[in-house]
Write a structure and sequence with these properties.
The structure is a single chain. The chain is of the alpha/beta class. Helix content is 37%, strand content 15%. Helix 2 crosses helix 11 and helix 7 packs across helix 8.
């Protein structure tokens, strides 16, 4: 992924050492947010009065409630435009000082990419010491706010014996949906999870390809559009999703139809986890509003909001209310789940996984 996104760049680093720049109408290439107090940031953010985010839509990880509370608390108007992690970074770079976005949410692997591209504005927040070292850049160019685990959602109206493992799914007789492995990070991680379950790892994806090829050969691999609506309609029996997406879908399905019956589980053999990080646009026209948003996302209230959206908060020192904790999967489900251990190897694998998927899986679909 990283090598596909990064192009050769001549980075021009201009440091503008002014705290008052946050409230200016003129574009600012660099503002030293880390030198400002939280009180100063909040005051300037309210003067800016606006915030435009990328890839932080209302329906993902309960962002909707977070943004409503942010606006209610600080009086700052917010809008979002959904896009992929790669598109966010490209937009920040292409627009430069004509920036239309102030903050974005990117997959864990893209945080360092954004920093290397030179499009990030560092801000550590007051919660810096509560963030694990692996989940942040040393200066706050990117900070992971939450993470997800690859899971499976099951339509019990279609699937007679509810599976709990990759092996159960392999031995089933229902349609299996993964998504577009050529384009979707979520789908790529599903293949990685299967690879790990059968002895592979970030540098050896072959067991995962072999697993899904068997399903394709059985005529059970869904190659249609991977949408929430199709899962709800019963066009597939099981689908691979991040746990926060799967649990959110299940909640919506039951709201739409009280008779809906869906189960969500983490495959017992193994699963993979990855985080999502906020990046503040170096050229943001509302940098203090963006910094204040990151501050709120990492606050107790912000972390609980993410948990309400079924995401796992990055801060372990936040105690979730009982009604929120009860909505999540039991901790025992995550016993064999792990984070990516070799990011460089996975970046290398991700460059070819789409082609391999077409050649070694889709080509065998019946």
């Amino acid at each position: 992924m990283k090598r596909r996104i990064i192009s050769a760049l001549l980075l021009v680093c201009i440091t503008v050492a002014i705290a008052s720049g946050c409230g200016s109408d003129e574009p600012v290439e660099t503002v030293d947010l880390n030198s400002m107090t939280l009180e100063e940031i909040e005051a300037q953010a309210k003067e800016e009065g606006e915030l435009a985010s990328a890839a932080m839509p209302d329906t993902w990880a309960n962002w909707g409630e977070t943004w409503q509370e942010y606006t209610d608390t600080y009086g700052i108007e917010h809008v979002d435009t959904d896009m992929s992690s790669a598109e966010e970074i490209s937009l920040f770079e292409t627009e430069g000082t004509d920036a239309t976005k102030d903050i974005g949410d990117v997959g864990q692997a893209f945080g360092p990419v954004a920093e290397e591209q030179g499009v990030t504005l560092p801000y550590k927040t007051s919660y810096w010491d509560s963030i694990p070292d692996w989940a942040k850049d040393d200066d706050g160019d990117w900070i992971i706010g939450y993470y997800g685990t690859m899971s499976v959602i099951v339509n019990n109206k279609i699937v007679k014996d509810t599976p709990t493992s990759f092996e159960d799914i392999l031995n089933g007789d229902y349609i299996v949906a993964v998504g577009d492995v050529q384009a979707a990070t979520q789908a790529q991680y599903a293949v990685l999870a299967a690879a790990i379950a059968y002895g592979g790892d970030e540098s050896n994806i072959q067991p995962g390809l072999d697993y899904f090829r068997q399903i394709a050969e059985q005529g059970r691999l869904d190659l249609g559009e991977f949408t929430q609506a199709r899962i709800e309609k019963g066009e597939v029996g099981v689908a691979f999703l991040w746990d926060f997406n799967a649990l959110g879908y299940r909640e919506q399905f039951v709201e739409n139809n009280p008779d809906a019956d869906f189960t969500v589980f983490i495959p017992s053999e193994a699963s993979i986890q990855t985080g999502y990080a906020t990046i503040i646009n170096k050229y943001s026209k509302h940098p203090c509003a963006a910094a204040l948003a990151r501050e709120y996302i990492l606050s107790d209230e912000g972390q609980i909001n993410l948990a309400k959206g079924y995401a796992t908060p990055i801060r372990e020192d936040v105690e979730l209310p009982d009604d929120v904790a009860s909505k999540l999967l039991d901790d025992s489900q995550y016993a064999n789940a792990r984070m990516v251990e070799d990011q460089d190897a996975w970046d290398e694998t991700a460059q070819t996984i789409g082609t391999l998927w077409q050649e070694e899986v889709v080509a065998y679909a019946q």
